[in-house]
Amino acid sequence: MKKFAFILSISLFTIIGAMAQCDSTVMLHTVRQEMLNEKDEVIDNEDDAAKIDIGKDTIIITKDNGENIMTASIVKKDCKWKDRLKDGKSTYDIKIAFPDGTESAGTGVLEGKEGNLHFLLTIEKMQGRKIKAYIDKM
Question: How confident is the model at residue 69 (pLDDT cuts 50, 70, 90)?
């Protein structure tokens, strides 16, 4: 019985920790982005400073000068971090609203490996192409 109670308490702490990670606000900065094709091959790249603000319910990407690139509502999220923002990932199902008034469904993935972070954005209307932003600071 003690073993069961111990396992249950560990499980609850893990679940609560994962929920807290998903509900945290994260402000990221990128200066390098790549456009990937459906095979994840780089087809274009750009060195342009931008901010990625991930909140409880939204993801907002703006250029450093404040110009809005996109605003997305988070529909569903899943966070699995072994070491917060260093090793693991957060996956977001999103509904994107662009400044020109168009909308699209998509997915955002914030992933960390060995302390290196990147944000991968897949937008349905981009027909298999993805945008990968390398995070240089938080």
Answer: confident
Distant-in-sequence, close-in-space partners of 67: CB < 8 Å, separation ≥ 6: none
pLDDT recorded at residue 18: 38
28 contacts 116 by C-beta, under 8 angstroms: no
Query: Is pLDDT of 22 > 80?
Result: no
**88 vs 134: CA distance, rounded Å:** 15
CA distance 101 to 112: 32
Concatenating the DSSP letter of every residue in 5-68 gives HHHHHHHHHHHHHHHHHHTS-EEEEEEEEEEE-TTS-EEEEE---EEEEE-SSEEEEEETTS-E
